[in-house]
Design brief:
Blueprint (H helix, E strand, L loop, with lengths): L1 E5 L10 E6 L6 E2 L4 E6 L4 E5 L4 E6 L6 E2 L4 E7 L1 H12 L2 H19 L3 H10 L17 H10 L5 H8 L17 H16 L2 E9 L1 H18 L5 H15 L6 E3 L2 E3 L6 E3 L1 E3 L2 E3 L2 E2 L7 H17 L4 H4 L4 E5 L18 E5 L3 E7 L2 E15 L5 H16 L2 H5 L2
């Protein structure tokens, strides 16, 4: 019996995907729920698994081909494994049959020990999977295991070194490497270009004294972790502060749809997270009504999923406002680019001790520059500045959040 393999149904915001890699060749045996093919979309890599035991009969969409949602991409012959094995048993010698079974089992076992996301990095970096300890189920090597291996042993493997040596030289004789741009990177480039060409983007800056927030965190972090099981970080506090400011300045939380302005009665805040594939922005739904503990838990969950390539389309779709923290990489000041159709984005930066004037005295304070980029077509400079001042005041006096001042 032939079973159809189809691409997943994509959400409305994702028109199509690209066949990134087939993990099984035509004629090879497959097991139910075994990863068959990865489909890369603009946002995530989707994994399609085998619907039943059998043999991969036909691949209809080869690697690199663009496919639509729910499109036929291959077929499986259900039960063909058993038929093939029975036929081989009658025509081959016992020794040859045992050897073939052992080789098949060994190959299947090796393939099962590496998940698709990890396999792409291993092949791209030229790593030896045998040198990587798997922490997944039944010793399976995950993407996180590969990343941890690279961090603990940054030296290139022999295979990687050979790959570098065999790279084709340029016309000048110096080595160059040309690789195709991933769909995610291409989509990021497209959206950034779109934002710069189709919005009237401006950026306003302010600086904030982080001492009150640092004192608050130092005072309660241990009790917070004991009570909620998560650490208290600055990002959750900025999410909470931003949500409160968005309630007061709804235009900053709005979006433009053609000639209409859409005012959102909720605050779905995207938090920019760096991953191996590029910058991704998972969404904290109804952030204005989440506790700090819930925000921290979600941020930790999204960070781990981004690291392992497990973020879903639903977790990255939508959003009414975005926060980007370039400070974790040491950025002192930047102008974050809008994420259309959103009309504003908040940029956080590195905390540095600097001399500031307080009550006529020069004192040293841990200061952070904040940047708010906004679409001037919808948001006036007055609203943008007032929004950023509201964020600054709540950060410097956290009691304002509780008192709604």
């Amino acid at each position: 019996m032939s079973i159809e393999i189809k691409s997943p149904t994509f959400p409305e915001s994702v028109p199509d995907g690209t066949i990134a890699a087939w993990h099984v060749a035509e004629g090879e045996a497959v097991r139910r729920d075994q990863p068959l093919v990865d489909i890369e979309t603009d946002k995530v890599v989707l994994e399609v698994v085998a619907p039943a035991d059998g043999v991969l009969e036909e691949i209809l969409a080869p690697e690199g081909e663009t496919v639509a949602g729910n499109q036929l991409i291959g077929r499986i012959s259900e039960g063909a494994v058993a038929d093939k094995a029975a036929k081989s048993a009658t025509t081959a010698s016992p020794a040859a049959t045992d050897k073939a079974k052992a080789e098949t089992k060994s190959a299947e076992s090796a393939a099962a020990k590496v998940n698709p996301a990890a396999k792409r990095i291993i092949e791209g970096k030229g790593l030896d999977s045998g040198a990587i300890a798997g922490t997944g189920k039944a010793g399976r090597i995950t993407k996180g295991d590969v990343i941890n291996h690279l961090e603990s042993d940054p030296k290139p493997s022999t295979k990687a070194a050979r790959a570098a040596v065999t790279a084709e030289p340029s016309a000048s004789g110096r080595e160059e490497k040309r690789v195709p741009m991933s769909r995610l990177r291409a989509r990021i480039a497209e959206r950034l270009l779109q934002a710069s060409q189709t919005t009237a983007m401006l950026t306003t800056f302010n600086e904030v004294n982080m001492q009150p927030l640092m004192d608050l965190r130092a005072r309660y972090k241990d009790n917070f972790e004991k009570a909620h099981g998560v650490r208290l970080g600055f990002m959750s506090l900025f999410v909470r502060v931003s949500a409160e400011a968005l309630k007061r300045f709804p235009a900053v939380n709005a979006s433009i749809d053609g000639n209409d302005i859409v005012y959102h009665g909720y605050q779905d805040i995207g938090v920019a997270v760096s991953s191996d594939r590029g910058l991704v922005v998972p969404i904290l739904r109804d952030a204005g009504y989440l506790s700090l503990a819930n925000i921290e838990s979600k941020i930790n969950e999204y960070g781990q999923k981004a690291k392992n390539g497990q973020l879903t389309l639903e977790e990255m779709t939508g959003g009414t406002f975005t926060i980007s923290n370039g400070g974790v990489f040491g950025s002192m000041m930047s102008t974050p680019i809008l994420n259309p159709p959103q009309t504003a984005i908040l940029g956080m930066h590195a905390i540095k001790e600097r001399p500031v004037a307080e009550n006529g005295q020069v004192v040293i304070r841990p200061m952070m520059y904040l940047a708010l980029s906004y679409d001037h077509r919808l948001i006036d400079g007055k609203e943008a500045v007032q929004f950023l001042v509201a964020v600054k005041e709540m950060v410097e006096d956290p009691a304002r959040i509780l008192l709604e001042l």
